[in-house]
Design brief:
This protein is of the alpha/beta class. Helices cover 36% and strands 24% of the residues. The two termini are 32 Å apart. Bound molecules: adenosine-5'-triphosphate (ATP) and magnesium ion (MG).
Length: 260
């Protein structure tokens, strides 16, 4: 770790958000380190999604600072921050059910390149686009489904496709809000492995309720309760913290303590 802090991709300093006097995010100071999978956990209503909304500039903070690679980006707009590579999945990357799997990735690529329609009419550029789309499908293990209609994919594979459309935006920091929500056991482990794989040359900040997933892939966990960070560290440490067990599970023999 360098003293200049270049290992920190994203940092918040006393970041706060109030809704008409209600403090949803309470002076959160958090550092996300390059190459890590950083999980944000906490009970319902703790402020996790609001925190994400502050990072993507969907909401303006009441006070505090957001730094990206050491630069203050608090007051820049959502598009500018997205262009830096701060990309949120599962919210902005809706897939079109009646397009093929490949077409969905092509749409995402075209959108991210913002190139004019006429450019894509040349066969050469269309082939390049197809090649890149196939590469992205291969990354998420959907190569063999390229021609399938998106509506026919299983739920877990749809989420994998959403990840591919997010990758089209070339994220440096991926923000995932509950990526395994609503999934069956098989899809959960497929998406967990996928996130682990995709994190190899990126940084991931994820909100995740499934403690099995968190214990398997998160390098660092921050626990949010009523808008404040109450604990931070690796799973083994955080899961033994009595305040966390109490706050998160409301019991000392909840899932946090017994994931295996
Ligand atoms: N736009 C808003 N206006 C008023 N209150 C809001 C708004 N958005 C969120 N809140 C409140 O802020 C608190 C935090 O909500 P948030 O959605 O960030 O929680 P969360 O940790 O993501 O919860 P969950 O685990 O249920 O997704 C909640 O009490 C919520 O009702
Ligand atoms: Mg939420």
């Amino acid at each position: 770790m360098s003293a200049s802090g270049t290992d920190v991709v994203l940092e918040t300093r006393e970041l706060a958000k109030e809704f008409k006097g209600f403090v949803a995010v309470n002076k959160v100071s958090l550092k996300v380190r390059r190459g890590q999978i950083h999980a944000l956990i906490g009970p319902n209503g703790a402020g996790k999604t609001t925190f994400f909304n502050l990072l993507t500039k969907f909401l303006p903070p009441t006070s505090g600072t957001i730094l990206y690679c050491g630069e203050d980006i608090t007051s820049e707009g959502p598009a500018q921050t997205a262009r830096r590579g701060v990309v949120r999945s599962f919210q902005i990357s809706a897939v079109f059910p009646h397009l093929s799997v490949l077409e969905n990735v092509r749409v995402a690529l075209q959108r991210s390149l913002g190139t004019s329609f006429y450019f894509w009419r040349s066969e050469k550029s269309l082939n390049r686009l197809n090649d890149r789309a196939m590469q992205l499908l291969a990354e998420v293990g959907l190569e063999e489904f390229a021609k399938a209609e998106t509506a026919d994919l299983s739920y877990g594979r749809k989420r994998a496709l959403e990840l591919a459309t997010t990758l089209a935006l070339e994220p440096e920091l991926m923000l995932l809000d509950e990526p395994t929500q609503g999934m069956g056991h098989e899809d959960v482990s497929r998406v967990t492995n996928l996130i682990k794989k995709l994190s190899a040359n990126r940084t991931v900040l994820m909100v995740e309720h499934n403690m099995k997933v968190v214990s398997l892939i998160a390098d660092t966990i921050s626990v949010l309760q009523r808008g404040s960070v109450i604990a931070e560290g690796p799973y083994a440490e955080v899961s033994r913290n009595p305040q966390v067990v109490e706050a998160y599970m409301g019991t000392t023999d909840g899932a946090l303590g017994g994931t295996h």
